[in-house]
Amino acid sequence: MASSGEEMPRPKLGIGVLILNEQDEVLVSQRIAPGTVFHDNWQFPGGHQEYGESFEFTAQREVEEECGAHLPLEDIKFVTVMNVLFTEHGYHNVGIFMFCKVDKATFVFENKEPEKCTDWRWMDWAEFMNKEPKFIPFKYFIE
Questions:
Q1: Which of 11, 46, 83, 133: disulfide with 92, CB 3.0–4.6 Å?
Q2: What are phi and psi of 110, to 5 degrees?
Q3: Contact 68, 78 (CB under 8 A)
Q4: Closest CA to 64 of 113, 106, 98
Q5: What is the number of H-type helices and E-type strands within the chain?
Q6: Distance between alpha carbon 40 and the CA centroid of its chain, in Å?
Q7: Quick check: pTM over 0.85?
Q8: Three-class secondary structure of residue 14 per DSSP
Q9: Which of 7, 5, 4, 14 is nearest to 83 (CA)?
Q10: 67 and 59 in contact (C-beta within 8 Å)?
């Protein structure tokens, strides 16, 4: 907590999008962030909400920016909200998980930000659950 007159940073609002196909595979990649605790962390597509956006629109925009696929807004659903604390590394987000079920043959996901993450790939949910390290919001999501 901040002492009187001390300005503390405010948490950001981050949205992760769990994209599942008909074979119960989830779309994942690994972060590229050398020198940080988040390097090589497994993740879903996602990012920060911008002013005036709905959760669904942020999810749609982030997937399009990162993966090049345009998900139908009406197919994107809210899952949960979490208070994600990793303050020892300067990270405090309000984490929103969204969900979208897709037909694997209908959507093509390609890496639009190769400087930020590895190529997007489909992975069986059980295999993903055994991958380490996962991006910090998963600690809260899984518990």
A1: 11
A2: -130, 155
A3: no
A4: 113
A5: 3, 7
A6: 14
A7: yes
A8: strand
A9: 14
A10: no
